[in-house]
Structure formats: structure tokens, C-alpha cells
Amino acid sequence: MLEDDDLSWYARKADSLRQDVAVPRAPEGPDPRVAGLLAELVAGGIRGSVERRTLYTRRLPPGCRGCLSGKGTNAFVTGLCTRDCFFCFNQKPRVDQLVVHGIPLAEPEEAPYIVRRYGLRSVGVSGGEPTLRPERLLRLVRAVKALPFSVRVDLYTNGDGLTDALLAELKAAGLDALRFNVVAREFDLSPVERALKLFAEAAVEIPVDPAQTVQLHDMVRRLDALGVPFLNIHELFVCRENASRMAARGHASGGPEAPGLLWEPVAGGEAAALELLLFGLREAKNLSVYYCSTRTQEDISARGLRRRRRLGASAAA
Ligand code: SF4
Question: CA 70, CA 117: separation in Å to the nearest integer?
């Protein structure tokens, strides 16, 4: 019997994100660039919610719809990874464990039970680096896609283990889309290019480091030229798991500007993300850029938790 009402995994995860370690702090007060950037975005026709900072240029990625409505979840294939990105917020030491919707599973074939029970409609499969456990990954995708109703499955990967053979197997298993962390490979887009041959939705999802503006602008131009449909950008944040690496790169917490957030966006992080969004709005011919801020992610977590508690309670009644 799965301990599926146990929220302790999420509690431990939330605790590991909580920022209670010493990091440099930026001077208090709102970033003066943000209001101007938002005004330019609105004038340029940006879509979404300015208040909740859920903004996009052309189209909202289909994989984000379930997540935004609280019907999405995460599946962590393994905590192991091939990289050690400076912004990574995953818990350490890394654990080689399959966790779906916060519930550790012995076998991937248990995942459909979780999807049914909680009325989920999209699953973001990630890690760690999920391609480190290709058989577990394929079994998970096959099991979820075998459900008699539509569940969208997106794979998050840094591309390290994504051979052409594995791409073909993922396609056959029913995977809908991929999202690449190209920062992990220093903006190498070759895995994205290979994936595009099989998946119309081979997209990129990364945090925006204010110190990488030149590389980010260049990346937007190259993604657009390649025909990549979506770029999802996140606000860079400090948490317990990445605090020392972020401090080493000179990032200060901008915490006082965002009281109440579990994750603290770095100083200058929001302005950098909005600037990149504006760059995408003005420069890209086809690429859609979506800004998923820490505020948006807090909204998503709260919606998902409410839904989980409600459905857990009704199943127990
Ligand atoms: S590739 Fe992903 S899981 Fe691996 S270190 Fe980077 S952010 Fe973390």
C-alpha cells in the first residue's frame, strides 16, 4: 500500500528550499528597472498576468497549462545527476530514488495509480538527470501514457545522456515534449537540435542569471533560427541548497523585495528575466518566451497542495 497521503517528502523538500543561511543581501527597496520593463512589455502586447508575473510572448507552452491549473505534478526519476549547476536546488546528498507527486515509488508502474487518484493531467519528468536511469524513465513514460485518458508528459533533461536511440524510444513510449537545461552544457544547443528532428516540442527551460545577458541574447537568436517553439525562463533564486554556490558567483539575495516567498529571488533577477522576455518579444520571429516567476511557482505549489489535500480527504472519507 502506498503511503500516498504522506506529505513528508514535500515538507522535507520545502525545508531544504527555505533560505535561512547567511548570504549577502542587496540593499532594501524595489528594483527601479522593473516598473519600466513591465510598462514596455505591456505596450508591446505581452500576455498573461502582470500582477502574478506569469507572462508570455506568443503562446503559452501546452505543458504549462496543467501545471498552472494545479493539475500538474513532478516525477523525479532519480536524484543523481551528471552536472552540478550553480543554481541547482535539488537536495544533497543525491538519492537514487523514484518519486512521483512527492510519493516514493518502488516501481514506475505504480505511477498511474497516483495520477488517477489525484486527477492529474500533466507530469513533468525530471531529476537529477532522468536519462541516467533510461529503463526506469521509459517504463514511467509508458505506464503513464497507457492510461485511458490524456496525460501530458514532458521530460526535463540536460541532454547529457540523450542518445538518438533513447530519443527514438521516448518517442515510441509516447513522450510529448522535452525541456532542456542548456545552461548545464554552457549553451550547447546540439541536443535540442537532435531532439527537434523527432519532437516538434523540443523546448528550453532555464533560470535567468543577470550575469549571462550576452549568452542569453545569443541563445534566443539561435533558438529562434533553429525553429525551437518555446523558451521558458525562471527567476534566479537563492535557497539553502544553492546558497554557497550563488554567493560564490556574487549573487545577493533580493529577499526584502519579495516578503513571504519560500524562495528568495536574487537581486536583479526579476529585472534580468523581464529584460530577456522583452528581448524575445522584440527580436524573436517564432520563438515564444514564457516567464515563470517565483511568484508564479508559489501560486502553482499552493494550488497543487490544496487540490491534493482535497482529493486525499475525499478519498479517505
Ligand atoms: S542538470 Fe538539473 S539536476 Fe543536474 S545539477 Fe543542473 S539543475 Fe541540478
Answer: 14
